[in-house]
Specification:
There is one protein chain. The chain is mainly alpha-helical. About 85% of the residues lie in helices and about 0% in strands. It contains 5 helices and no strands. α2 runs antiparallel to α3 and α3 packs antiparallel against α4. The longest helix is centred in the first third of the chain and has 35 residues. The model has no long low-confidence stretch (mean pLDDT about 90).
């Protein structure tokens, strides 16, 4: 089923907004991860449980972001970059979570810093990149 010229921009806009919301909320969730980790490392051990719950929440948000990026790419026929960057962020997130669960802090912390930067850059790109805002022909 071919989309008509009038529905195409609307479909593209819907998927782009879904991606924007998902990655923006995920970026805030990852920032909370840094705060909860800092509180835990400072000796407030109750924050470890919040840090673990934050991981699950951020992962769920990134799954929603990946679905949105896939919809933007394959349903709305948009750019490939948002999907690939979101997928990369999810892979880094999974590696980071695994190193945290394994208590490999020397790798967990730098991966966390890289992940926060990657997700914030992705969120920034969804809001500012002219290439991602243009509806493909």
């Amino acid at each position: 089923m071919e989309s008509s010229p009038s529905t195409r921009p609307r479909r593209y806009s819907t998927w782009l907004w879904a991606l924007r919301v998902a990655v923006t909320v995920a970026a805030v969730a990852y920032l909370f991860q840094a705060v909860s980790a800092g509180q835990f490392l400072a000796g407030d051990y109750a924050f470890l449980r919040l840090h673990q719950l934050g991981t699950t929440t951020a992962d769920l948000l990134m799954v929603l972001a990946l679905v949105s990026a896939a919809g933007l790419k394959w349903i709305a026929r948009g750019p490939r970059a948002p999907f690939l960057i979101t997928l990369a962020a999810m892979l880094v997130s999974q590696a980071q979570a695994a190193t945290g669960a394994g208590r490999i802090l020397w790798l967990h912390v730098p991966l966390g810093v890289a992940l926060i930067g990657l997700v914030w850059a992705l969120a920034w790109g969804t809001w500012t990149s002219a290439a991602w805002r243009e509806v493909p022909r």
